[in-house]
Design goal:
9 strands, 41% helix
Length: 296
């Protein structure tokens, strides 16, 4: 299956969207322009992204081993052998997210959920439903894409499972951020359309990573048919709005969303010098929604 291109050829009109690029647009058109259209990224890869990538890949390998019939001990051993090898030269200056806390978190998560009643589904082709790539047409002009950690059966019902790592304290305040949430709505819709499975929502397995401990918690965010229909209408509206920005060649700043934005320092400068600061602090690596890195 060929992966769709991010943009219509020779234009700044995006045709393939994922939760990341759609989230940039919803947060701030100017941020979307810098991230998606121009492709400006920090010159230094975030240890958060590196940690999250290794964490997700480790759990993926474990899930695949268990789905093939391996017991917990064998699957854990094989997972750790891969993880220790792939991270051998990785160095992190962060006290909470480093090689030691990564290995600890993987082991403790797999031990914590060793007897998990959420079981990986088997697809029609006989393969386990682990680390699934999807893309499907929302309209003739809009394709949605992304990656799902797992499709599982839990309490006799199908769900998406998504793993998160965070430094935030787990509890109702943490999980409330997913009610509503752009990513979780897209994942639920993708499970239903791309994998023809009537998923009820997303099981969120969150790991709180700290210097001296890792703790875990689980919650489920549900989506009804009408909620997904509303999200679909809203998504089409947001994307169609971006066509106007392209036509006018102007991407307005949402200055109410600047506080935690990586581009705050850029947007605070006079427009005449922003390009200079962009070239100093960032480099260009254009995001591809069909191949985007896993969101930690």
């Amino acid at each position: 299956m060929n992966k769709p291109e991010a943009f219509f050829t020779g234009t700044q009109v995006q045709q393939t969207w994922d939760s990341t690029s759609l989230g940039w647009l919803k947060e701030c058109p100017r941020k979307y322009y810098y991230c998606m259209i121009e492709g400006w990224n920090s010159k230094h890869k975030s240890y958060h992204l590196i940690f999250g990538s290794y964490y997700h890949k480790s759990l993926e390998l474990y899930d695949l081993e268990r789905a093939k019939g391996a017991d917990h001990t064998v699957a854990l051993r094989d997972t750790l052998r891969w993880l220790m090898k792939i991270t051998w030269e990785w160095e992190s200056d962060d006290t909470a997210k480093n090689r030691e806390t990564l290995v600890r978190s993987v082991v403790w998560y797999l031990d914590h959920f060793q007897a998990d009643t959420a079981q990986t589904m088997i697809l029609s082709d006989g393969l386990p439903a682990v680390e699934l790539t999807f893309h499907f047409e929302l309209t003739k002009e809009i394709t949605l894409a992304g990656h799902l950690d797992r499709l599982v059966t839990f309490l006799d019902a199908p769900y998406i499972m998504d793993r998160k790592t965070t430094g935030a304290t787990l509890g109702s305040n943490y999980f409330d951020r997913f009610e509503p949430d752009n990513q979780m709505s897209l994942y639920t819709l993708a499970g239903r359309i791309a994998y023809d499975t009537p998923v009820r929502g997303v099981i969120i397995d969150a790991a709180q990573i700290a210097v001296g401990f890792t703790r875990f918690d689980r919650a489920i965010t549900y989506r009804t048919d009408d909620q997904l229909k509303e999200w679909t209408r809203d998504t089409i509206s947001w994307i169609e709005r971006s066509y106007g920005y392209v036509e006018k060649n102007y991407w307005p700043m949402n200055d109410k969303a600047c506080m935690l934005c990586n581009y705050k320092r850029i947007c605070s400068k006079d427009p005449s010098v922003r390009e200079t600061f962009l070239n100093s602090d960032f480099e260009k690596r254009r995001w591809n929604p069909s191949e985007g890195a896993k969101n930690a």
